[in-house]
Amino acid sequence: MKRPKILVVGSFVMDQIATTSVFPREGQTVLGGEFSKAPGGKGANQAVQAARLGADVTLFGKLGKDSNAEDMLAVCREAGINVDHVARDPDTPSGCSVIILEQKPGEPTKNRIIVLSGTNLKITKEDVAFLKDTIGQYDLVMLQLEIPMEINELVAQYAYEKGVPVMLNPAPSAPLSDSFLSHLTYISPNEHEAADLTGIKIEHNGSDFNKEQAAAAAKALRDKGVKNVLITMGTAGAVLINDEGTYFSPTINEIKAVDPTAAGDSFVATFCTGISCGWAVKDTLDFANCVATLTVSEKGAMPSLPVLDKVIAFNKQHNFKTPDVSALKK
After folding, report:
1. What is the enclosing helix (H) or strand (E) of 73?
2. Which residues of 318-328 are buried (b: 16+ CB within 10 A; e: fewer)?
3. Other CB atoms within 10 Å distance of the CB of residue 286
4. In the annotation, is 283 catalytic?
5. CB of 221 closer than 8 Å to CB of 187
6. Strand order in the sheet with 245-249
7. Which positions of the chain have pLDDT values less than 50?
8. Which one of 133, 265, 286, 309 is the catalytic residue?
9. DSSP designation for 105
């Protein structure tokens, strides 16, 4: 089994994080708790998580020529990611975000996020043209929606034409064309994004969810050509539906949630890494849930993404199964 080779095309975002005991109402000023900065962005987060698990990762995106750009590149390089193809724009600032975390004693942390896209929306078709001839070397391509839609559609088309599987994490939520959907192997909406895409609301309460609604939402997307629909539902876990069947993995509640930022990114990146290793779907989902659990136990996006050995130790401590990770240790 060879080490999986993954291409991530997506965003870089420097997160600026403030904590508070209560979200301010309109016109209200509140005193906060702590402030910090942490590299993030859905594309970069997913690339870093896959790399920290041991995948061979190449990341393409666009950055400015500012200190935030250098800080984000440094974290990616430290994770072992190939950033040789990252484009630069000297006239536009790198993407950043404002994250407010509401932290109340005895309650899960809640977040509100504003993303300022910057160079993420400056990616052009010319910037990604090189992928038309090189994308065939990868085992899987990961996309998200924090860069221009036309770029995602073009990269998905390149990958489809070369027979390379494509995962789209459709966040932030946006309408998707039928041609784009037909080029996807995997799509991973949460329940809200699934409702936006299909018009079907998936009701859930705690660990229970409406299986008929989930199946209907998945069918609507599969009818558009997506082979595998992976729906994440917070406390209700995650379900993947394809031609072979339905696979469910419950949420793990072994660790207190401190910051939900990047939990979805870590889950999707781990799923893609596991599938690229040839793991069974159920084992991959369960392992992805373990990684996401560790992610929410610490603050920040990239800083919270765990390395492989930490996940293995967590699984051993709690008697959870770890799939064959030999390919990730090469």
Report:
1. helix 67-78
2. eebebbebebb
3. 24
4. no
5. yes
6. 56-60, 5-9, 140-144, 166-169, 186-187, 228-232, 238-242, 245-249
7. none
8. 265
9. T
